[in-house]
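Annotated sample (chain length 356).
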Amino acid sequence: MLSESLRFSKVVVVDDVSANLRLLESSLKVLGLREIKAFSDSAQGLQWLLSQHWDLLLLDLDMPAPDGFEILRQLAARDRNSAPVILVTALSDVENRRKGLELGANDYVCKPLDLPELLLRVCNNLQLSQASQALQRERDQLERHVQQRTEQLSVSYQSVIRCLARAADYKDNETGNHIMRIGESAAILARAYGMDEQWVELLRQAAPMHDVGKIGIPDNILCKPGRLDEAERLVMNTHAQIGHDILQDVAASPLLILAAEIALHHHEKWDGSGYPQGLKGAKIPLSARIVALCDVYDALRSTRPYKQAWTAQRAQALILEQSGTHFDPHLVQLMAPLFEDIEKLQSSLADEDALS
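Output written by the structure step:
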């Protein structure tokens, strides 16, 4: 007899001979099974099997279409341990047995039936099914737990990112909206470049940290209302390396690895005249090329203590003019038809001072 936990297993029988069907059904009931589905019409049985949950299938092979072999083919995607199949058939020759097992059957019983043997095989396969399903539930629960922890860590990382980026921007008299716009516009441009969504999302989160190194720049230089002299400019330029050094210590995080890369290289220029390493062309990481373009455009469109915001037309003209010198020409080409979308960010994430 079955254990109590197995009595409510859902067992399906498909056999086109009514006498065989009744024999199998009555034997399974004697065993103690409560949920048995029996089909003499193989097409109807297959449709049910494909649409419902079941724990064990007793399947004849020699039937009108679809025969047992075709049913096995249709069930090929199932988890064979969670939904085992026992072939119950008169096709007992080696070739048919091998074919049935190759198509995914778990076990094989030949007609005429030895009922005690069949019922032992039913019990064994139901135990396999139950154990496999329990293991899958545990795996699913573990995956949900891991996903929840990953989401929690992601939220924590994002909180740290926002704090670091805002700390730098507040010191520089810029706004939280500025760093948000950089992230969103960089994502728009990366998506247009053809990067996958995972990388686009990483860039969206990492880009706001591009100027975190300004935390290390003295206030008399960082907040100077006029133009910087050469010595002051050299000090200001160190914020790229400072930002990289701040972020690189947590190298295990792909997000912070990308953020450190952007912080170091977002002032490099396509023609090699940028800093800190004077990289040229495609040697500049793509992430930094994208952020450089978005950062300059946003800076032009924003009001600062030392300047008024440029008009959209004037800012866009400069971006196009600097293609191939300051900026990656391919990125500029991609950005041109996206100006309208980026301008929507300027409106939806506007600073307190209205744009002109």
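Annotation: The longest helix spans residues 115-171.
Annotation: The beta strands are 10-14, 35-39, 56-59, 85-89, 107-110.
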